[in-house]
């Protein structure tokens, strides 16, 4: 599975980066490819490219605040979660997406 995402929070500091880190670790631990863009106090980092979007099975967006460039994910399977949920339940998110993908086969 290949997952891309964008993490952002109102202050653009802790939750933005903690959510990105939690999701990355959880997906990599299950041998999935993942790329999480952060939109934080330092600007946009690890930017998700159009090539990333094209090959992505799922897109994860934190919904704490509006995501810059959200329109680039149009037509993809999008999961919107709060950054706190991403931090606390990253493993559960991975398992749920695995189930969805398995059921689509």
TrEMBL record:
Q: Which GO terms describe its cellular component?
A: plasma membrane
Which CDD domains does this one have? PTS_IIB_fructose
Residues of the PTS EIIB type-2 domain: 1-99
Q: Which gene encodes it?
A: frwB
The cross-references to Gene3D superfamilies, in alphabetical order and at most eight, read: 3.40.50.2300
Q: Name one GO biological process term.
A: phosphoenolpyruvate-dependent sugar phosphotransferase system
Superkingdom assignment = Bacteria
Q: Which UniProt keywords apply?
A: Kinase, Phosphoprotein, Phosphotransferase system, Sugar transport, Transferase, Transport
List the protein's name. PTS system fructose-like EIIB component 2
Molecular function via GO: kinase activity; protein-N(PI)-phosphohistidine-fructose phosphotransferase system transporter activity; protein-phosphocysteine-sugar phosphotransferase activity
- Entry-linked Pfam families: PTS_IIB
Q: Which organism is it from?
A: Sporolactobacillus putidus
TM segment ranges = none
């Amino acid at each position: 599975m290949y997952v891309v995402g964008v993490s952002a929070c109102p202050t653009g500091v802790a939750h933005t980066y903690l959510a990105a880190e939690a999701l990355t670790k959880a997906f990599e631990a299950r041998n999935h490819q993942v790329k999480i863009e952060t939109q934080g106090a330092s600007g946009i980092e690890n930017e998700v490219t159009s090539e990333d979007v094209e090959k992505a099975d799922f897109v994860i967006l934190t919904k704490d605040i509006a995501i810059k460039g959200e329109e680039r994910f149009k037509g993809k399977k999008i999961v919107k979660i709060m950054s706190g949920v991403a931090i606390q339940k990253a493993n559960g998110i991975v398992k749920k997406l695995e189930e969805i993908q398995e059921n689509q086969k």
